[in-house]
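tokens incoming
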């Protein structure tokens, strides 16, 4: 279902939710970290989710194994590098990878600014070695609260020229976007783009706040937009991108099934919705799975799947010139 005459673009993938199972085993072995199992298949059910979990926070608890092996900056660099190699293996021409430095630093008390530096180094090395263009998105984990989010922002700003955009992730139900207006004002002042996880568990008002309060140009998930036709009209008119993550939404129980997912309706209404993975290391999927298996299950026609693929390049945080270059490079090879 992937249109091979178009570049494949991933816009919503957490680098810290994309640690390979084998890398978790390797790092745990190297650093004597306890794991529930010491072989790949034994470990899989602890790290990956295979069906619905009770909710987003239960799903996020699975990050324990992903960030638990981030013992030092070498490990962080390796994980960032392998993310780019995985994107290459999936045939991705351009990927925007996002990460929360505080979340990554916490288990082993690393310095969040040095985590950011290690991510930038790992991604740059991967991009050079594998020929995949990558943009980085910094995340503020709302679940740590407003004050920690300023510290997380400060860590991200140490690499401001190597980061494209700011995102807000975590517990949307208890940490409303409104509390983070100051952080996002700073982000926009340094020229970063803005995307926000919104409307995943909260209602359309959360999406409105992300757009009008934080300046979001794209929304992660946006499930509840479906309840609010005037919001969908606004998003279509202002070309606000939607980063849909089908399997993630089923696994977090935010939608009841693939068939109940609003992506198809978004595309029917002409919204700039896209297909993404979210956390491949936890969901046990890749972008092919989302295009080939998840999207048809969500009722998308082949034409709609191709539209979503075109939308991804359209709403990528790239200049028109960069988009043209990706298209040109893609059609040549
Ligand atoms: N929502 C909120 N926070 C997250 C997600 C998500 O889908 N994935 C990783 N952190
Ligand atoms: Zn996400």
């Amino acid at each position: 279902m992937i249109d091979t005459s178009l570049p494949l673009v991933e816009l919503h993938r957490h680098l810290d939710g994309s640690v390979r199972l084998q890398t978790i085993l390797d790092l745990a072995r190297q650093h004597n970290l306890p794991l529930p199992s010491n072989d790949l298949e034994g470990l899989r059910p602890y790290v990956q989710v295979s069906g619905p979990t009770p909710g987003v926070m239960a799903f996020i608890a699975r990050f324990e194994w992903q960030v638990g092996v981030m013992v030092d900056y070498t490990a962080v660099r390796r994980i960032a590098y392998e993310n780019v190699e995985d994107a290459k293996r999936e045939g991705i021409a351009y990927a925007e990878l996002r990460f929360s430095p505080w979340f990554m630093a916490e288990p082993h008390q690393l310095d969040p600014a040095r985590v950011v530096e290690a991510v930038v180094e790992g991604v740059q090395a991967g991009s050079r070695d594998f020929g995949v263009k990558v943009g980085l998105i910094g995340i503020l984990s709302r679940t740590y609260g407003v004050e920690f989010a300023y510290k997380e922002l400060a860590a991200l700003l140490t690499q401001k020229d190597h980061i494209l955009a700011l995102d807000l992730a975590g517990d949307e139900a208890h940490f409303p976007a409104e509390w983070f207006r100051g952080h996002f004002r700073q982000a926009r002042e340094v020229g970063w783009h803005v995307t926000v996880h919104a409307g995943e568990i909260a209602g359309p008002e959360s999406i409105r706040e992300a757009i009008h309060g934080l300046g979001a140009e794209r929304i992660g998930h946006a499930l509840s937009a479906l309840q609010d036709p005037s919001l969908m009209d606004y998003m279509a008119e202002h070309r606000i991108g939607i980063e849909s993550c089908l399997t993630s939404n089923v696994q977090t129980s935010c939608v009841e099934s693939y068939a109940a997912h609003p992506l198809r309706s978004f595309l029917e209404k002409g919204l700039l919705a896209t297909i993404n993975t979210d956390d491949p290391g936890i969901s046990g999927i890749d972008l092919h799975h989302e295009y080939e298996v998840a999207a048809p299950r969500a009722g998308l026609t082949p034409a709609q799947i191709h539209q979503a693929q075109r939308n991804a390049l359209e709403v990528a945080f790239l200049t028109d010139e960069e988009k043209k270059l990706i298209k040109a490079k893609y059609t040549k090879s």
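note: The pocket of zinc ion (ligand 2) is lined by residues 12, 14, 169, 197, 220, 278 (CB under 6 Å).
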